[in-house]
Amino acid sequence: MNTGEVLRRIVFNLLDASKGGKLQKLKEVNKREIVEGVTEEYMERRLNTLLDYVKKNSAFYRKHPEWKELKDFPVMTKGDFIEHYDEVLVDHYQEQGKLYRLSTSGSTGTPFTVLCDADKMSRINMNFISCMELNGFRMGMKRGEFRAWIKGKNTISKWKSFKNNLIMVDISNMSDESLEKICRDIEKKKIQVLVPYSSALTALTQYLKRTGRDISHWQVEMIYTMGEALPQETYDLSKELFGFTPVRTYGNNENGFIAVQLGEDPEYSIDMFNYYPEILKMDCDEPAEPGELGRIVVTDYYNKTFPMVRYDTGDTGKMRIDRDEKGRIHGKYVEIYGRRGSLMYNTKGEPLSIHVFMNTLLKFEGVVYQARCIQWGEKEYELLVNADRTKLNVEELLAAYRHYLGEDAEIRVTYVEEIPIQASGKFMVCENKWDGRK
């Protein structure tokens, strides 16, 4: 525990206390509700309050008084919200100046910015801290955020960096030279918390293992992963190298963190305090059966500026809802498969987790630098490969992919010099361009 961390925590608590301690109370309630679950009365009250609010204050929803219950409201994709943006935006916020922008990079399609007020922004920040603290984070710890930082787009000022004790770790390039610089920065700047995308953590841990780098002088106490699913091999290797397990999360820039893994629980605990979760069937808006793979849809209780009712996040997963002995409700994402554009199918039409593609790449460490599997048809695939072709056994590589795709998979190999990382800092190991399953 260093002086900078303690001072920032003291300053935060003093400033919050001078304003009535709202943030501290919000954080503690958020943490409690994630762990202990919510009551059915809370869910009904929050949902009814939100639906009444949007029907009175949003032009888009006001046009449909016949929408009474949540199931009556349309499921809205990112594209739907963009198309009806001005109508969805609540009336009295149209001309308001002091609003916050929650922007996605558009790495999987279309850039999208959601507006919110100070209350929702506070909830997003405290939701983030809550999820972190439940896994050992201390307010004020120095964290390094791994992103493709682009000047003038998503970089932060020196003052904000200092205030939040945040170091921008650039992952635009993940070559050994860049990874070496990242390692030097982690040690020199005494970063305590790493906040990487899963693909960046995979690259970093493989580099550490391959080079045998001594990290005993690092001050890293916590790894908090974002984005695409984390391969089990990377999870295990991180524990081996650092002595603790990384925290896996699920969320987005539009809403905030939606679910988090607690301790070594393989399932994700859903934040039922801030969101109403649904899993809908892949081909219609009916609820999926328990344990069935479907579309992740969330309703955000607290964005009163740009209300997001039944937002289809573009991701897929499986969910379980339980009621404990006290009658409190707990939501768990049993597994998160990732975006539908990344949801691949084998030749039998069965869905495949993004994990299998990330795990396959780990088997060819040091030979295959990057690979992306693209599905073009029911049994037609293309494999983009950036590799050392003098060492690559292409038949062995194809056999590894066919193990998951099916022995009758038709795979053509395209060699490339580089597969770019997405603007968000994510690396797509698979992509579905087959209209029959999208």
TrEMBL record:
<dbReference type="InterPro" id="IPR053158">
    <property type="entry name" value="CapK_Type1_Caps_Biosynth"/>
</dbReference>
<protein>
    <submittedName>
        <fullName>Coenzyme F390 synthetase</fullName>
    </submittedName>
</protein>
<dbReference type="InterPro" id="IPR042099">
    <property type="entry name" value="ANL_N_sf"/>
</dbReference>
